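Bug #77: duplicate submission created two jobs. Keeping one. Sequence:
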Amino acid sequence: MPVLKYWDEDLQEYRLLSFQGDVGPTGPMGPPSIKGVVPDESNLPPTAPDGDAYVVLRPDPVVPATLIPVDPWHIVGAPGEPAFQNGWAAVAGEIAPAFTKDPAGRVWMKGMMNNGTFAAPSFTLPVGYRPPVARGRFSVQATAQNAAQQINVQFDGSVMMYGSDNQNVSLDQISFDTETVTEWATGPTGPQGPVGPQGPGGTASIAARMYASAFTPSTALAWQKVPINTISFDTLGNMASVANGSITIQQAGYYKVDGNMLFSTGGAAYTYIGAAVYKNGGQVCQNISMPAIQTYGSATVSDTVYCNVGDFLELYALNTQGTGLAGSGPSNYLTVTLAPQVGPAGSTGPTGPAGPAGSALVSFYTRLTIAGSVVPAAGVVPFDSVVEGNAALLVPGQGYQVTAPGVYLIAVNAPDLTPQMNLYVPGSPYAPAFFQKWTDVIMATTTGTIYVNLGAGQATAIGANANRISLAVWRLA
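Kept job's structure:
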């Protein structure tokens, strides 16, 4: 009869596992068995010494998950963090200046500071949080004047302010790649598991945009509701209300809100122009500018607000000259977009088949600039260089290549261009007009090029400051 044996690791010998024989009477219950061990198979012969077969029993290995720690926000002036220098300090009642670095090696800043010395370090970033080149230049906003301010982040970590306004200087626009992360760790490909069950369907993007076709405020320095009466888009179909001039929330969560007002200044310089977002009749964010341009002026507001179902958002404005809107109606808008949210963890299902390799994170963000020295008299602003992001998305001499329809966050920064500009997005029914800066979420319904255009007869030489003109595009969905 064939005999089946197993290898006993403790005794280092083969033991009889079972054999075929006559059926005997049932014996008494034996003592509990002891837990077995996984043998070292490298020392086992291919067959038992006596030629009988044997088996080896071993459990499946368990590989624990690895968590990547997230860098916390480092508050300038806090114990153990970089100190303020040369008179700079945090602004009371505002977010304190702070910085962090994400797992991809990119540094982000936030907060507001004031009262310090120009062209001198306000604080110094530690090693590992510094730019890889001589310095990075960033155009920032200050509230006392409308002149463009500049912050340089030096190779040695010094954060230095240049300009004419050191009051309420915002750091929110500063972000740069340290180039300290050059590769991602990966393990060997495991065996393909069985197909897992189909998961629940995802939710569509939730966003709405409305704009005002006409509005003339009084000259009083007071906030007045803007009658946004035209719908650009409403992904749910029941958020935007023309009758109420508002956007009503249908799903609770954190929402990114963006608003802009573009007014004629009536030929008067330094007119106070403001834009604000109100929730349920109360103000949640605002921005007031005092443009030096004597023909047009704009104010842009942007923030993240938590909303419950039924909350409504409205656009408010002020203009001390009491003049009407300038440019096209779509330039005076309110956009509301639900930020991506993470729900509670579900139960673990069986392993599904391995998917294709994902694209790098940087493919979703691309910033363009101009390496030349002159912008033509009219037509397309000739973006020809990629500052960071996916170089394949540059259309030389034009702008950003939209490879698939979707929702895009677009930011234009042109502090040295004073003429009116227009932004064009593939498939979008409008081309918003703006001066110097513009930010909004826009839906591209087809492929094509996102580009910026100057009006006729508006030649503008920009010389050595060409790299201060930028077009940044994030693909959201």
